[in-house]
Amino acid sequence: MHYLKNELYHIYNRGNQKQKIFFELDNYEYFVRKMKKHLVPCCDILAWCLMPNHFHFLIHANELSVAPVNKKGIPYQNLSDGFRKLLSSYTKGINSKYRMTGNLFQQHTRAKSLVNDAGNYSLTAFNYIHQNPWKGNLVRQVEDWKYSSLRDYIGKRNSGICNMELAKQILEPGSIENILNSARQFELSDIAQIFQSEPKISSKLIFDNSEKIPDFEITEILLNG
Prior knowledge:
The chain has 225 residues and is α+β, with helices and mostly antiparallel strands. Helices cover 37% and strands 18% of the residues. It has a 5-stranded antiparallel sheet with strand order 2-3-1-6-7. The protein has a two-stranded antiparallel ribbon with strand order 4-5. A hairpin with a 2-residue loop joins strand 4 and strand 5. The chain starts with 7 loop residues before the first strand and ends with a helix.
């Protein structure tokens, strides 16, 4: 995917064959360390969430994100290369630890551009990302899940991963301060908006050509992650 400076992207992937990507709590911490190393330096992360078999990011592409890099004659943008390094290095570490082989993640990491945000899809994605653990019955309250950016926004942690000031500027005024209520009241019908192929949103792949997400896959992602 070709990233554009100052645009927002909802980026997500899940385990190959829907398998888990996190097998124990230490794996989440390991992935977070990889995030800090490979993603934080090349973009503005506005929201993130790690789930047992998938992950979500809401990312603002900045000047560093769109900078070109060249790997073995293959042109990349810095953000694409950051995700490539994140997933490949995490997979290598997990495969080594558990004596596994093969791809841990699905081949294509998806990136949805939230352009012409008249429907405020960025705020929809922001809330959806934070509500994932509650929707997946992993916690009783959205703020109980440790492996998302919600705890940073409500002042229970300062991980340094998210650009929270930028999020406050970009998202709907007052939405950040009221984040807990927003996340708790979020509805499945709102979630569906960020996956629909409407003129406001383009659905593309990071490492491949444009591809519309089929309706059955939208439902599968919403219900199963």
